[in-house]
Amino acid sequence: MRAERGADSTADPTADRSRRASGPLPRADYEDIFGRVPRLTVEVVIVSPQGVLLTLRRRGPCAGLWHIPGGTVRYGEPLGDAVARVARDELDVDAAAGRLLGYIEYPSHLARGIDWPVGIAFAADVAPEDRDKLAAMPGAGWFRDLPPEMHEEQRAFLVDVAAGRDGPPAGHASG
Question: Domain ranges in the chain?
Answer without folding.
Answer: 26-162
